[in-house]
Amino acid sequence: MEQLDALVADGTTYMGTSHRQATVRNKVGEVREGLNALFSLPDGYEVLLGNGGTTTFWDAATFQLISHHSQHLSFGEFSSKFAAAVKSAPHLSDPQIIESEVGSHPMAEANDEVDLYALTHNETSTGVMMEIQRPPGAKGLVAVDATSGAGGLMVDPTQFDCYYFAPQKSFASDGGLWLALCSPAAIERIESLAAADRWTPASLDLKIALDNSRLNQTYNTPALATIHLLASQIKWMNDNGGLSFSSGRSRQSAEILYTWAEASDFATPFVSNPAHRSKVVGTIDFRDDIDATLIAKILRANGVVDTDPYRKLGRNQLRIAMFPAIDPEDVASLLACVNYVVGHL
Q1: Where along the chain do its domains lie?
Q2: Which CATH architecture has domain 2-239?
Q3: Same fold yes or no, 2-239 and 243-344
Q4: Domain 243-344, architecture per CATH
């Protein structure tokens, strides 16, 4: 609510103007500086942004982040999509794909032929998170899809070269924008591939995105409200203690959720390994004789929304968000509602 109030307060001078005007560029600069502080980025790292969200960034990466050969960890719907985009790119070799069963995650393997390792910090579809570490002995770049993890999970920036995400999860904004925290090595890769005359559509050109980001703008017009809401959320995080604060909120919510599920006689965490259980998206299986879909419908009819499972996973479960903006007490209240509904079915 505070984010919306801030947008309304600035609306008459901020909305409706060119994204190349100072009012908008200053807000983009606030986002870039705020993310630099939030993630404690080392010297030389830069914050890039562009239109289109994470899916668009995958396509952009096939042009100007992967030289020839990539390795992908695939352990859910979203971690598999980047690999699929690379596999269909005619100018790249078929990617190496390392898979694991849903509910777990595989480990990257150093390979001298690989010039980019594609990891996922949090698999939104299954509620599996993984610690971000460079594969021992790996020489390629490490690119991390952090769409649902960024801001809600701790991460060491020295362990990645490109940490990319969209603002609609932990940053409580809207979609349609991608952001990427890039190391000097990633910047060098972008610049070298751009100089190599590899044909790239302008809207997917990371060199164009880099040049515009340095001017605190995007190549084409962004959704201004999204940027304003994002800036407010980043400021809230930094003002209250930074990433340790925001990830701590998610960690507290996760403790509430998984403690409840383990004590329940009708629910259990879908992810069996506690170390792999996401602290931002929890997936909870229900006993076969209890219809989780019906629970979600009843909750929605009473104003408790978006607890639905990921449809392609096909499990009798609820999927519960635990992003930093969600008060841990609200997670506890949600679980009390679930107990009440189950008790009356």
Answers
A1: 2-239, 243-344
A2: 3-Layer(aba) Sandwich (3.40)
A3: no
A4: Alpha-Beta Complex (3.90)
pLDDT digits (tens, 9 = 90+) for 82-121: 999 999 999 999 999 999 999 999 999 999 999 999 999 9
Contacts of 330 by beta carbon, 8 Å cutoff, 6+ apart: none
The secondary structure of the chain, three-state, reads CHHHHHHHHHHHHHCCCCCCCHHHHHHHHHHHHHHHHHCCCCCCCEEEEEECHHHHHHHHHHHHCCCCCEEEEECCHHHHHHHHHHHCCCCCCCCEEEECCCCCCCCCCCCCCCCEEEEECEECCCCEECCCCCCCCCCCEEEEECCCCECCECCCHHHCCEEEECCCCCCCCCCCEEEEEECHHHHHHHHHHHHCCCCCCHHHCHHHHHHHHCCCCCCCCCCHHHHHHHHHHHHHHHHCCCHHHHHHHHHHHHHHHHHHHHHCCCEEECCCCHHHECCCEEEEEECCCCCHHHHHHHHHHCCCCCCCCCHHHCCCEEEEECCCCCCHHHHHHHHHHHHHHHHHC
In this prediction the pTM is 0.96
pLDDT digits (tens, 9 = 90+) for 16-39: 777 887 889 999 999 999 999 999
Cβ(157)–Cβ(180) below 8 Å: no
